[in-house]
Amino acid sequence: MALSIRRDSSLGSAPEALVFADGFPEIDTLAEELDNEFGVDQWVEVSNTSADQALAQLGGNTSIAIVTASADMPQAIEGIAALIRKARDAGLLVLLIVGEISSRSMHMLLKEGVADFAPYPEPEGALTEAIERLRFVRASGNQSGVGLTTSALQRRGKVLTVYGVAGGVGASTIAVNLAWELATLVRKQGRKVALLDFNFQYGSVATFLDVPRREAVYELVSEASSFDQTGLAQALSTYQDKLWVLTAPRDALPLDIVTPTDVKAIINLAREAFDYVIIDMPQALMNWSEPVYTISDDFFAVMEIDMRSAQNMFRFLRTLKAESMDLAKLVFVLNRSPGMTDLTGKARVKRVAESLGITLGHQIPDGGKAVVNACDQGIPLAEIAKSNPVRKEVLRIAQRVATEDATKAASSG
């Protein structure tokens, strides 16, 4: 009987997971993480040659098969694909753990019907998140699988776009923290959040969350119409197992590198995989800005209380009206709004809103140096300055979004 690499334990004890890791170079580190995730006696490593015997002797508690892939040779990939099929036929949810393999090999393995996958050893926490998703599927009784590659559980995510009418008004800061607050709020309900940085030249989302910029991002944004969920998954980074992030590419690229068709393809892929898609837009209006606006459920237009922002907001509204765009989805946000005791500032806010003919949906106060420090350290405000007034207001926005959706779901159900 095949045993764990570190303990004398047979499959008769019905572990929660079987692990197939022949030739996986990171097996020692992986074994330590699996001990933390499952417990020392709740996973067993099985050699690929013993797979048939092990799968034939499954205990009632065994529900997950972890299959690793690091060799990119065709023969090895075909063998792993066959192993995935055997595990699926045995009724197990298959978690694919991948090292440095090509996109083509990755696509071939995912087509075999894995429930989820996780790159290893990076990004940190991806393994934990994937295992939690499989446990959620098992507990819900839905054995069709989860993750970015499963069509059975396709979502139709809500798109929330954040756009700053002038440089430096804090739109990216709001987008990052809104995405984090929303991800934290809805995670226990099994809902997922993605943050897309559409400022392809100088996007700062990767900096504000300290996540890596993946090579696959360039391929995705330049050829999105030919990509599927696998391509999207390879381009995404994760932050603390809760938030999926599409960063800007590593190199500063022209904003028009993306066509309207590509932008719609990226958003549609994200909507199918996530319940909420937050988009951080560049200030420049491009030929693909219109489809983003059209697809968005809510479009947060961020400004400050200065003449530059007011003039740009006026131009932006005129542009939308000239194109006969739906203005109902606009949510006007005033960042760094005057404090309660600043009566002059409050009067000025009122005059600006009246002159533009808008209603400010949210007024976010000035958070001071704590906001700058959080961005520089790559940490959301909720993790480093929970009581900051900016964090509190962004949390209210996230709660409003989540509550509205919960109310709609209850009324429709």
UniProtKB/TrEMBL annotation:
Pfam families: AAA_31 (PF13614)
Keywords: ATP-binding, Nucleotide-binding
Domain AAA: 158-321
PANTHER family on file: SEPTUM SITE-DETERMINING PROTEIN MIND HOMOLOG, CHLOROPLASTIC, SEPTUM SITE-DETERMINING PROTEIN MIND HOMOLOG, CHLOROPLASTIC-RELATED
Protein name stated in the entry: AAA family ATPase
Naturally occurring in which organism (per UniProt): Paralimibaculum aggregatum
